[in-house]
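Figure caption, in words: inputs first, then the predicted bound structure.
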Amino acid sequence: MLQRRKISVLFSALLFSFAAQAGKLAIVIDDVGYRPAEENKVLQMPQAISVAVLPNAPHAREMATRAHQGGHEVLIHLPMAPLSKQPLEKDTLTPEMSSEEITRIMRNAVSNVPYAVGLNNHMGSRMTSSLSGMQKVMQALNHYNLYFLDSMTIANSQAIPAAQGTQVKVLKRRVFLDDSQDINAIRQQFSRAVKLAQRDGYAIAIGHPHPNTVRVLQQMLPSLPADITLVRPSQLLNETRHSGSRTPAVPVKPAKPRFQPAELCKVKQPLAPVPATRALTVVGESVSHSPLFSTLKSLF
Ligand SMILES: [Zn+2]
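Bound structure (zinc ion present):
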């Protein structure tokens, strides 16, 4: 009898630890619309893999439509001004733009990227760190019932305070998969996203349609741990733990960003250049070198 009770307690403990470990993982592939060949491979992946389409990319409409038809969630990948000097996409938002201008750009983006249910920033360290700039963005977003996924290209993004007083829900990226396009580095980042999802209950990872990123996803998605569920970002909107006041598990202190001119998402094809998002990584990296981060990391 005692033995049976012991087994039952052990079983409950196991169940509890399994439930505590279960995590939702959302993966978004940015910069879509320039490289259909590589992007089509992303659309062959599970439907929960989402895509963020650059509204002025040559294949924007086509890729958004194809993604939607394949059951993938579509986001608008809206170019926003970075702090560093980089080649910019057409209609890149700046904090100085008027509300009317931002509304016009948003309207075009919504029209060029059909089926979008959310929007995230392409670059944007300068724009997203401006409260007044982001307030104009949130006011415009409010008209379209789109959620905002903060790519977190700078630690002191103002997206959450700017969304106050609007209906716009804000999500935050946790991991960039391919700051380095080295295949082992991408594998490590993927594993990190999985661990964060297990530890915190959910995580959002962003990657780009680079051949090595596609390869890693093709290799690693089929063997995800059993306690990880792939989800669309919109499935995380009601996570109570997502409330704006929540302190991130790995604190991101407002940092002196060490901006580097390096580009994340270089386009291999001789089409228009896709400037990359590098700034966040930089912040991410400065955090990852902090003693606190090392301590947290050792807990995994
Ligand atoms: Zn981008």
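DSSP finds eleven helices and nine strands in the chain.
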